[in-house]
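Format notes (please read before filing issues)

Several people have asked whether sequences and structure tokens are stored in separate files. They are not. Every record keeps both together, in the order shown below: the sequence lines, then the token lines. Line labels are part of the format and must not be stripped during preprocessing.
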Amino acid sequence: MTTALAGGSLATAVGTVEIYRGGATGDRAGESKAALPVPVVYLHSANGESGGLEFLELLADHGEVVAPVFPGFGASEGIASIDDIEDAAFHILDILDRLGLERVDLIGLSLGGWMAAEVAVRWPERVRRLALICAVGLHVDGAPIAEIFGRPLDELADALYADRAHPMAMLMHHMATLESDPSAIPFDLIRPVLEAQAATAKIGWNPYLHNPKLSGRLGRVTGPTLVVHGAADGIVPLAHAEAYAAAIPDARLEVLRDAAHLAVLERPVELAELVLSFLG
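Then the structure lines:
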């Protein structure tokens, strides 16, 4: 049995955002579980995954987990006040301050990994350990990040998921068959996707999904860092994970087999075990 995260809201400098929190430690069903030393904060990808993730619930079995929903995703307000990755980093800091979280373990997937790295280079004293999963944020010569804006849904599905039988991959392939007839797709189904892409574009349209200054700042990260790459990632080449691992002191790289860009959704148990071992 895993620990569910409860949804709520938090007033921030840019507006009210959704936030999921939960966590349990100690003896559960007769099995002693090691407690995580500090709260874990998870920053989601451009996919907008948050509450209800098996990966987060597995982490919450061992300690406090906090998963804010970034402005422009879900019901979170304030995207009009965020123009670039620096604004995004200060927004994350504002959340930590308002929750009274002086020091955390910070985990980010893709877009969230980029945000996590930006927070860690600016305020390294606030991040005990850092986990970057299929993170964007860097420019690597000869290894461009694949296009995500306006890409056909079936192509995008194959880049995001190694397993084409994954329910979300199958849904995206089905929606792709209906793209020639937009009226066949209920707008309420595609609206969250369009809103998420618009919010992502505000941060990562130009330059495309990276900060030219970030690579030169990664040496400021002081906590141990885990860099995770999905072996079948069709969005971010392995060279980006290697660049993160090489530039951050005390960083190690792990490659997940049978996982693509959304490894959190495809391999939640394997990924949770890897992250828990690192954080513990």
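For reference, the curators noted about this record: The first strand starts at residue 6 and ends at 12. The chain has nine helices and ten strands.
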